[in-house]
């Protein structure tokens, strides 16, 4: 249970012990020999709850499973184990009209502004199709609704008749936002919304999302690797490492007093804009372990400067560390470790 | 970067001929004329294509017989013009069915992937391991000569090529985010395949269709030459070339003019296909 949550309140979207593996291609010989099939362990028991009206940021380095999680949330992928619940219902069990209603209410915005729009459809066709398939408006009101949507995402009215290739990356992302919003969803899952855009355009698109969230009281899951961006827009932040949420908490608490050494390392590694300050040495040693072969015990033990025996034997649970702040670290179980003072690069 | 870019000004959507690819215009011109000749041959042909004139047997090209006459005294020019009807019909009838079947099957196979795709791949391998012409001749030999049986023979084999092309393209397209966006929107697989993926996957098949029509004319002429396609005395280029094969050194015009017609029509299809590829290229 996190802060600001009324007891007994059902989260709008909740992820329970979700596991997702992607099997590697295997040769016929290997199959005959009965060799175990290797699999990329993309998600290894993710827990997360998202409440109505909040923005949850999901951060982590590439390969940590952020995008896989985002795709599980909108049911583009089905988890191998665990479940995703929407308003308490397991989304894997929804079918027919319920499934369509879920698709309408939980929408996704994609990372790549170039491949996420059908190059052969005009903006009017893209939006009109979603509007008519979900019967959002009677046929004769569809044009008026498209005009409203273009206003909403600050695109000129004549954009409707144009094809995606006639727009810039930032404009395309706004078309993507309009497409997601046209079915009036409750939840928006934004997977790396602006990482493909120029920095100058990023702010515009992110601010647009913030305004829309307020205007339409949306619930947003914002997946990104840019920490400053996530800090700027999220109420709560979840940090992922190797397919697991290792720390989650209110944005300010998490950024000012991280309870997991990996979060600390991630924050320290973020580039500083102040030229007088030198970025501290990264607190995480070495490379990300292979997701084909996960370490025993804590997933972070091979890179953690503080690891001790228990970290190699027992995988820490995501435990309460005060005020809706949870971390999966044996150290933080006994109070706040003073990572700031003790983090020094090993000589 | 503001929301209003220079591109926001009202744009002219009219297609100007000068902006079209030259190959498209040239090919279109040749095909347009070919189609007119195919539909209204009698307007352009000065003689009946099967009327024999024993006073003008093997007459060389002249003002009264532009392309000369053949061994029965039939006007070669009239026969070349009338053959447009048969050969354009072969081009269209022999390829359109395979196009439609191949595109639909290919789209479904490409989207389904997995075992379906493997099985389809084996079918493709089985078909392309035989030389196309030999296979068609074998089928026609079983069914009997004639145009209808030729369409059947070509149709049984040819769809595989379209299927393979489209399956490959759909396989690429279905992994792009816009396909996922359709799925996240709750669209049915049929809508995603035929409304979203296919328009982006069909271009190579359409371009191949043009080449295939040229190939169909060649095939039709070859079968006509061998006596397995259009039957004499019908005017058909392959039949005409066969008619002239015994007179090559004395009356070259009997075979050469139908041959030129094949080359020009084939060129028309190829040019048109090239231009179409240019025109249909997806802008990203």
Automatic annotation (TrEMBL), chain A:
**Record bears the keyword Iron:** no
PROSITE patterns assigned to the protein according to its UniProt record, in alphabetical order: ABC_TRANSPORTER_1, ABC_TRANSPORTER_2
Q: What is its main location?
A: membrane
Specify the protein's topology with respect to the membrane. Answer: Peripheral membrane protein
Looking at the record, the residues that make up the ABC transporter domain are 13-267
Q: Which GO terms describe its molecular function?
A: ATP binding; ATP hydrolysis activity
Gene Ontology biological process terms from the UniProt entry: peptide transport; transmembrane transport
Cellular component per GO, a single term = plasma membrane
Taxonomic lineage of the native organism: Bacteria, Pseudomonadati, Pseudomonadota, Alphaproteobacteria, Hyphomicrobiales
Question: Which PANTHER family does the record cross-reference, listed alphabetically?
Answer: D,D-DIPEPTIDE TRANSPORT ATP-BINDING PROTEIN DDPF-RELATED, TRANSPORT ATP-BINDING PROTEIN
The organism named in the record is Jiella endophytica
Q: What is this protein called?
A: ATP-binding cassette domain-containing protein
| Annotated compartments | Cell inner membrane
| Keyword tags | ATP-binding, Nucleotide-binding, Transport
Spell out the SMART domains in the cross-references: AAA
- Per its UniProt record, what CDD domains does this chain match? ABC_NikE_OppD_transporters (cd03257)
Family, similarity comment: Belongs to the ABC transporter superfamily.
Q: Which InterPro entries match?
A: AAA+_ATPase (IPR003593), ABC_transp_ATP-bind (IPR050319), ABC_transporter-like_ATP-bd (IPR003439), ABC_transporter-like_CS (IPR017871), Oligopep_ABC_C (IPR013563), P-loop_NTPase (IPR027417)
